[in-house]
Amino acid sequence: MLLRILFLCCLSLPALAEDSTTIKVLFLYGSKPSPAYKKTEPKWFGGILGGHVGIEIAPDRVLSFMPQGQLHIVDKGPNRHSRFGLHTERQFWGIMGYPGEEVKKMTIEIPIASWQKQRLDSLAAEYLRQTPYDYAVVGMRCGSAAHEILSRIGVVEKGYEGRNSKIDVFYPKILRTSLLRYAEKRNWAVREYPGTERRIWEGDETSFIK
Fold first, then answer.
1. Which of 60, 63, 70, 208 has the most CB atoms less than 10 A away?
2. Is residue 77 part of a domain?
3. pTM, entire model
4. Domain span at residue 31?
Protein backbone atom coordinates (compact mmCIF):
# COMPACT_ATOMS: atom_id res chain seq x y z
CA MET A 1 0.00 0.00 0.00
CA LEU A 2 2.82 2.42 0.91
CA LEU A 3 4.57 1.78 -2.42
CA ARG A 4 1.30 2.41 -4.26
CA ILE A 5 0.81 5.75 -2.45
CA LEU A 6 4.37 6.82 -3.27
CA PHE A 7 3.87 5.84 -6.91
CA LEU A 8 0.66 7.89 -7.13
CA CYS A 9 2.36 10.88 -5.49
CA CYS A 10 5.19 10.71 -8.03
CA LEU A 11 2.68 10.64 -10.85
CA SER A 12 0.99 13.76 -9.48
CA LEU A 13 4.18 15.86 -9.31
CA PRO A 14 4.46 16.60 -13.06
CA ALA A 15 0.77 17.50 -13.14
CA LEU A 16 1.25 19.97 -10.30
CA ALA A 17 4.24 21.49 -12.06
CA GLU A 18 2.24 21.91 -15.25
CA ASP A 19 -0.57 23.61 -13.34
CA SER A 20 1.52 26.66 -12.48
CA THR A 21 3.88 29.08 -14.17
CA THR A 22 5.55 32.40 -13.45
CA ILE A 23 5.05 35.79 -15.03
CA LYS A 24 7.13 38.91 -14.51
CA VAL A 25 6.03 42.50 -14.03
CA LEU A 26 8.69 44.91 -15.31
CA PHE A 27 9.06 48.44 -13.94
CA LEU A 28 11.16 51.12 -15.60
CA TYR A 29 11.55 53.87 -13.00
CA GLY A 30 10.70 57.50 -13.62
CA SER A 31 13.56 59.98 -13.57
CA LYS A 32 14.84 63.46 -14.31
CA PRO A 33 18.34 64.75 -15.16
CA SER A 34 20.76 65.30 -12.28
CA PRO A 35 21.61 69.00 -11.83
CA ALA A 36 25.11 68.53 -13.24
CA TYR A 37 23.72 66.92 -16.41
CA LYS A 38 20.69 69.09 -17.15
CA LYS A 39 22.20 70.26 -20.43
CA THR A 40 23.00 66.80 -21.74
CA GLU A 41 20.36 64.47 -20.26
CA PRO A 42 16.89 64.33 -21.86
CA LYS A 43 13.67 64.99 -20.00
CA TRP A 44 11.24 62.08 -19.79
CA PHE A 45 7.47 62.14 -20.03
CA GLY A 46 6.16 62.16 -16.47
CA GLY A 47 9.54 62.94 -14.93
CA ILE A 48 10.09 61.31 -11.54
CA LEU A 49 6.52 59.97 -11.52
CA GLY A 50 6.79 58.64 -15.07
CA GLY A 51 8.55 55.51 -16.21
CA HIS A 52 6.82 52.50 -17.67
CA VAL A 53 5.40 49.12 -16.63
CA GLY A 54 4.75 45.95 -18.59
CA ILE A 55 3.83 42.30 -18.02
CA GLU A 56 5.97 39.53 -19.49
CA ILE A 57 3.30 37.16 -20.78
CA ALA A 58 5.79 34.74 -22.38
CA PRO A 59 9.59 34.49 -22.43
CA ASP A 60 10.96 37.78 -23.80
CA ARG A 61 7.46 39.02 -24.70
CA VAL A 62 6.41 42.06 -22.66
CA LEU A 63 2.89 43.46 -22.98
CA SER A 64 2.42 47.16 -22.23
CA PHE A 65 -0.09 49.96 -22.83
CA MET A 66 0.99 53.04 -24.79
CA PRO A 67 -0.36 56.17 -26.47
CA GLN A 68 -0.81 56.23 -30.22
CA GLY A 69 -1.21 59.47 -32.12
CA GLN A 70 -1.97 62.74 -30.37
CA LEU A 71 -1.92 62.43 -26.59
CA HIS A 72 -5.30 63.05 -24.98
CA ILE A 73 -5.45 65.01 -21.74
CA VAL A 74 -8.75 63.40 -20.71
CA ASP A 75 -10.35 60.11 -21.73
CA LYS A 76 -12.12 60.48 -25.09
CA GLY A 77 -14.04 57.23 -24.80
CA PRO A 78 -14.35 55.42 -28.15
CA ASN A 79 -12.00 57.94 -29.84
CA ARG A 80 -9.00 55.95 -28.66
CA HIS A 81 -5.45 57.13 -29.19
CA SER A 82 -3.92 54.05 -27.62
CA ARG A 83 -2.61 50.59 -28.24
CA PHE A 84 -1.15 47.57 -26.49
CA GLY A 85 2.23 46.47 -27.78
CA LEU A 86 4.52 43.47 -27.44
CA HIS A 87 8.23 44.06 -26.87
CA THR A 88 11.34 42.08 -26.14
CA GLU A 89 12.86 42.87 -22.74
CA ARG A 90 15.61 44.82 -24.46
CA GLN A 91 13.06 46.91 -26.34
CA PHE A 92 11.02 47.47 -23.19
CA TRP A 93 13.96 48.74 -21.10
CA GLY A 94 14.93 51.07 -23.94
CA ILE A 95 11.44 52.40 -24.58
CA MET A 96 12.39 55.91 -23.40
CA GLY A 97 15.12 56.04 -26.03
CA TYR A 98 17.74 55.53 -23.33
CA PRO A 99 20.25 52.64 -23.05
CA GLY A 100 18.47 49.82 -21.24
CA GLU A 101 21.55 48.88 -19.22
CA GLU A 102 21.65 52.41 -17.72
CA VAL A 103 18.05 52.68 -16.49
CA LYS A 104 16.81 51.90 -13.00
CA LYS A 105 14.51 48.91 -13.19
CA MET A 106 12.75 46.27 -11.15
CA THR A 107 11.23 42.89 -11.97
CA ILE A 108 8.70 41.11 -9.76
CA GLU A 109 8.18 37.40 -10.45
CA ILE A 110 4.65 36.19 -9.75
CA PRO A 111 3.63 32.50 -9.66
CA ILE A 112 0.22 31.97 -11.23
CA ALA A 113 -2.04 28.98 -11.85
CA SER A 114 -2.71 27.55 -15.30
CA TRP A 115 -6.21 29.07 -15.43
CA GLN A 116 -4.71 32.50 -14.69
CA LYS A 117 -2.18 32.07 -17.50
CA GLN A 118 -4.95 31.06 -19.90
CA ARG A 119 -6.94 34.13 -18.87
CA LEU A 120 -3.85 36.33 -19.33
CA ASP A 121 -3.19 34.92 -22.80
CA SER A 122 -6.83 35.48 -23.75
CA LEU A 123 -6.78 39.10 -22.53
CA ALA A 124 -3.47 39.79 -24.26
CA ALA A 125 -4.79 38.50 -27.59
CA GLU A 126 -7.99 40.52 -27.18
CA TYR A 127 -6.20 43.75 -26.21
CA LEU A 128 -3.58 43.42 -28.95
CA ARG A 129 -6.36 42.96 -31.47
CA GLN A 130 -8.38 45.98 -30.26
CA THR A 131 -7.44 48.44 -27.54
CA PRO A 132 -10.09 48.41 -24.77
CA TYR A 133 -9.75 52.04 -23.63
CA ASP A 134 -8.22 55.40 -24.46
CA TYR A 135 -4.78 56.52 -23.25
CA ALA A 136 -5.00 59.89 -21.50
CA VAL A 137 -3.06 61.99 -19.00
CA VAL A 138 -6.14 61.95 -16.77
CA GLY A 139 -7.24 58.44 -17.67
CA MET A 140 -5.86 54.99 -18.34
CA ARG A 141 -2.08 54.79 -18.67
CA CYS A 142 0.52 52.01 -18.40
CA GLY A 143 0.24 51.56 -14.61
CA SER A 144 -3.55 51.48 -14.48
CA ALA A 145 -3.71 49.21 -17.54
CA ALA A 146 -1.27 46.73 -15.99
CA HIS A 147 -3.29 46.79 -12.77
CA GLU A 148 -6.50 46.21 -14.69
CA ILE A 149 -5.03 43.09 -16.30
CA LEU A 150 -3.57 41.76 -13.04
CA SER A 151 -6.93 42.27 -11.32
CA ARG A 152 -8.77 40.40 -14.07
CA ILE A 153 -6.54 37.35 -13.68
CA GLY A 154 -6.79 37.38 -9.88
CA VAL A 155 -3.26 38.49 -8.96
CA VAL A 156 -4.37 41.67 -7.18
CA GLU A 157 -7.62 42.69 -5.55
CA LYS A 158 -10.41 43.59 -7.95
CA GLY A 159 -11.26 46.89 -6.29
CA TYR A 160 -9.72 48.85 -9.16
CA GLU A 161 -10.92 46.64 -12.01
CA GLY A 162 -11.80 48.36 -15.26
CA ARG A 163 -11.77 52.12 -15.62
CA ASN A 164 -11.64 52.69 -11.86
CA SER A 165 -7.96 51.70 -12.14
CA LYS A 166 -7.19 55.06 -13.72
CA ILE A 167 -8.20 56.85 -10.51
CA ASP A 168 -6.35 54.71 -8.01
CA VAL A 169 -3.28 53.68 -10.03
CA PHE A 170 -2.40 57.06 -11.48
CA TYR A 171 1.29 56.26 -12.01
CA PRO A 172 3.48 53.10 -11.94
CA LYS A 173 4.85 53.54 -8.40
CA ILE A 174 1.38 52.96 -6.92
CA LEU A 175 1.14 49.55 -8.59
CA ARG A 176 4.77 48.74 -7.74
CA THR A 177 4.22 49.54 -4.05
CA SER A 178 1.14 47.32 -4.00
CA LEU A 179 2.98 44.42 -5.66
CA LEU A 180 5.97 44.80 -3.33
CA ARG A 181 3.64 44.35 -0.36
CA TYR A 182 2.27 41.19 -1.95
CA ALA A 183 5.84 40.06 -2.68
CA GLU A 184 6.86 40.45 0.94
CA LYS A 185 3.88 38.41 2.16
CA ARG A 186 4.02 35.73 -0.54
CA ASN A 187 7.79 35.48 -0.98
CA TRP A 188 7.79 36.54 -4.63
CA ALA A 189 11.23 37.14 -6.16
CA VAL A 190 12.06 40.82 -6.60
CA ARG A 191 15.09 42.10 -8.47
CA GLU A 192 16.16 45.73 -8.59
CA TYR A 193 18.86 47.30 -10.75
CA PRO A 194 20.31 50.80 -10.15
CA GLY A 195 20.37 53.36 -12.93
CA THR A 196 23.02 55.81 -14.06
CA GLU A 197 24.10 58.56 -11.66
CA ARG A 198 23.49 61.09 -14.41
CA ARG A 199 19.81 60.96 -13.51
CA ILE A 200 17.73 61.30 -10.34
CA TRP A 201 15.57 58.20 -10.09
CA GLU A 202 12.24 57.62 -8.43
CA GLY A 203 12.63 55.73 -5.16
CA ASP A 204 10.72 53.19 -3.10
CA GLU A 205 10.04 53.32 0.62
CA THR A 206 11.92 50.07 1.20
CA SER A 207 14.46 48.01 -0.72
CA PHE A 208 13.09 44.56 -1.55
CA ILE A 209 16.08 43.10 -3.40
CA LYS A 210 16.20 39.28 -3.12
1. 63
2. yes
3. 0.84
4. 23-201
